[in-house]
Write a structure and sequence with these properties.
Strand content: 15-25%
Strand order of the largest sheet: 10-9-11-12-14-13
Structural class: alpha/beta
Shape: elongated
Distance between the termini: 76 Å
CATH superfamily of the largest domain: Thiamin diphosphate (ThDP)-binding fold, Pyr/PP domains
CATH class of the largest domain: Alpha Beta
Number of helices: 24
Helix content: 25-40%
Number of domains: 3
Radius of gyration: 28 Å
CATH topology of the largest domain: Rossmann fold
CATH architecture of the largest domain: 3-Layer(aba) Sandwich
Length: 631
Amino acid sequence: MNFEQADLSIEKLKKIEILSRKARAAILKMTTLAGCGHPGGSMSSIDFLLTLYHMIDFNVKDPKWIKRDKVIFSCGHIAPAAYSTLGLLGFFPLDNAISQFRLAGSIFEGHVEPDVPGIEWASGNLGQGLSAGCGFALASRIKKIDDQIFVLMGDGEQQKGQLSEARRFAAKYELKNLTAFVDYNKLQISGSIQKVMPQNIRANYESDGWKVIEIDGHDLLQIRDTILQAVKNEFPTLILAHTNMGKGVSFMEDNEKYHGAALKREQLELALRELNEPQDLKKYEKLREDFQIVANEEKSLFQPELKIPEPQIYTEKTDNRSAWGKAIANIADLNQDKMLAVFDCDLQGSVKTKDFEKIIPDKFFQSGIMEHNTAVVSGALSKCGIQTFFVDFGVFGVDETYNQHRLNDINQTNLKIVTTHVGLDVGEDGKTHQCIDYLGVMKNLFGFKILIPADPNQTDHIVRYVADKPGNFLIAMGRSKLAIIKKEEKVFFDENYNFQYGKADLLHEGNSAALFVMGTFAGRAVEIAKKLETESISLQVWNISTPKELDESALISAAETGVIFTYEDHNVETGLGNSLADKLMRMGLSCKFHKFGVKKYACSGENEDIIKKNRLDVESVSAKILSFINK
């Protein structure tokens, strides 16, 4: 963007004043027609928004133009302002946005969504947009694109802790192409922001290394000059704009009621008269009645262009996390000039990202203990054609950041989450660090695929599998060193193994019963089968590495034995056992069924001791299976 050429004349600013009035009328019409929405903040931010869009680079015929400047709506409830602006600029007919606002089946939802041309990011709950802005700004640097990223936020939103994480990240990585705007109308749903939760917005940003400029948010000349100044700064910049809630309609101004309340129809008539805009609500009522749902076009995910090296085969005991670290380092070594990035949250030694950093230091991002921010930054980056890995412990990378990953999923990102220390296998850290619910949590996200490797060799295959795939993935693994799984004394997941998503692995053949296992218990499951052979019980053992996509042929084979067991160091009520039982019922398969899993929060201690205490060791499970079969 050439902001020298974007210097708006006084004449152009006067035209924007006229558009602001039309936009305010559109905001009120759409919210009144829907009977709900957030007109107050939409009206206080519209002057900045229209001025900004008259200065940045975009292409209404190609909203995804690679060199466009990007505007992120963190306060997504000001959707009426966003739709009015984009409609007036020609991204879509404004009449559609007015008549279809918050209408079931319409793209013009109550909070902004990327299905709308010109919208980059679904905002979700407040406080995540600045993190997304960091991700987009970082992507521009990696891809060497000279663009500007603008993030619109509310003032009440500044109470969110994730924003402090995003501020520090932006300052550390000197994201000077990032400008944030706060609509400082000093009101939120419950009233004055100082009454609800006192804060010093300016001091917070300045203390984290930002440049802050305060302006009158309704003075178009000040807005223009400040934007021109902000994009020239060598630091990320905050524009703190003093505004009036409900600006433009006298009875709405400075009234928190209109933060989230639409005008009644008689009020709308008064407001439109004050704005000198036509009262034509009947026209939009008719359009709303005639609306027909149009199927959304399938979005094509980006295709990573990475070279994938041959697998590395392990014959000696090691841990899955080390296998992950070596695999991603191998991939990095072969793709140093490609679009690839890894994020870490101060756990580098434990999650094995050091070798990656040595090979591609400029694409390794140490985010510190800021998991919420990192989850969104990495998600936004992954949406920009960069194959992105977010690496963390399970309790932080899954449990703590579930909401952020839910938003990533809605935004159709292409993030690869890699978590170590899942299940009981976390060492002596204890119950607070035992992520025994990762499957139960992440299988709620429709767009995420889940991969749980059984040993270091399968880990290696799985990492190489996801490295050149689009979409969202979770790879989850434990901490401890594992024996290499073998079948007939040969490495099972060797160089001839072909990982297929949704395919189960038969680790041991049998016909007395079947045992389904997930993750680090796979080796123990084989030991159980061998132990039971001495009791004349022939046990099928199936390794499930894709618990969201169960192998029907494996289930049929297992059900034919008449008895199925599941075995996992996951919450027994939400893990593999429940997924398997649900699938068996839907397939109409009948058999005896028993689940082995974690029944309560475990304690601190060595891995083997914890497993024994939870009666999930080889001896305990073998005895239970024997008793169950011999009943």
